[in-house]
Design a protein that fits this description.
single chain; D-Maltodextrin-Binding Protein, domain 2; 3-stranded antiparallel β-sheet; elongated
Length: 340
């Protein structure tokens, strides 16, 4: 009799465990996500939306919002979350009292929001290029002078982009106006030309950010190298985060740490606090969700090459989950356990 009871008890435990792992803790709850206006974040949003849907939540189509509007909306509870927070870059865009109503959770990519200057590795090695200061040397300028004006040509940012102002600041404070010519045409066209030049064996010198297709096509450490600014001289707006303009552990940098001259951000999920408290399964999934920067760069490359519709992105999500099923199931299991 005792043995029979033990067997029955074991079956109940196993059944209960299986049920718990298969349950839909979000059933009956509708979520309203938001999404940033830059498409390098669309894949991450789609992955999270898929995960929350598998947990039983009804997840609406995301609202594409400008940063300041999102941060006001999530604090008010008009939207529940997004996965496109860049901190500390977005700190200045938070409304007063923001952290009373909303918070950051998890790390989509820790130190993933990189910006800086890259140079073809062949020329880095040939000329021993370590920083922007090396472009004051005549032989370096000549190697990167595309139009014969005596200056090294830099594929830079179009007018109106935030990075345009930082690059202009660098040209001024490091005394580089007579040595470097920031080319401000269309960035996509400029980088397509740089990629073509690299494939033809020519030197390349460009600004970029991550996540981005650029550093999937031109891989740091193999094709190109991140270089330093001569020293950290922040703009007024950068001063509160000046300690994050130098970073260690960056693959393909000419030094460790490397002085990028731009604030390095963590890419994080941002969510309404009440939403997190009321939905522990969603909170746990958002906490667990993280991706290697290389995965995002690769997916962004596919988008840049034409696979950018919602259907294409959903296909990318399917493929990533199929290739990382253990990781995916681990996030879902942790979320389900959190709801028990």
């Amino acid at each position: 009799m005792h043995r029979v009871l033990m067997i029955v008890f074991s079956i109940v435990l196993m059944t209960g465990s299986a049920f718990a792992m298969d349950m839909k803790p979000g059933k009956g709850v509708t979520l309203q996500p938001a999404r940033a206006t830059w498409n390098t974040g669309f894949f991450q949003e789609a992955l999270v939306r898929r995960g929350l849907t598998e947990l039983g939540f009804t997840v609406k189509k995301p609202r594409d919002l400008q940063n300041p509007i999102f941060y006001k909306s999530v604090a008010l509870g008009d939207v529940d979350y997004w996965v496109n927070g860049w901190f500390p870059n977005h700190d200045s865009q938070l409304p007063k009292g923001f952290y009373d109503k909303a918070t950051t959770i998890g790390y989509v990519v820790k130190a993933g929001g990189l910006q800086g200057y890259l140079v073809s590795k062949k020329e880095v090695d040939k000329f021993n290029i370590k920083s922007l200061d090396d472009f004051k040397r005549p032989e370096v300028k000549k190697a990167f002078d595309k139009n014969g004006d005596g200056k090294a040509d830099l594929t830079a940012c179009p007018p109106g982009w935030g990075c345009e102002n930082v690059i202009a600041h660098h040209m001024k404070v490091y005394g580089l106006a007579g040595d470097i010519n920031p080319v401000k045409a269309s960035y996509e066209a400029g980088m397509a030309a740089a990629l073509g030049a690299y494939k033809s064996g020519e030197p390349v010198f460009f600004y970029t950010w991550a996540p981005n297709w650029t550093i999937f096509k031109l891989k740091p450490g193999k094709d190109v190298m991140w270089i330093n600014v001569p020293k950290i001289i922040p703009k007024e707006s950068q001063k509160p985060a000046a300690d994050r303009m130098t970073v260690s552990g960056i693959e393909g940098a000419v030094s460790d740490p490397v002085k990028l001259g731009f604030v390095v951000s963590d890419i994080r999920t941002v969510a309404n606090k009440k939403f997190l408290v009321n939905n522990p399964a969603a909170a746990k999934f958002l906490e667990e969700f993280t991706l290697p920067l290389s995965v995002i760069n690769e997916q962004n490359t596919r988008m840049n090459e034409g696979e950018k519709s919602d259907k294409d992105i959903a296909k990318h999500v399917d493929e990533w989950i199929a290739a990382h099923q253990d990781t995916w199931n681990g996030w879902l299991d942790a979320a389900r356990k959190a709801a028990m």
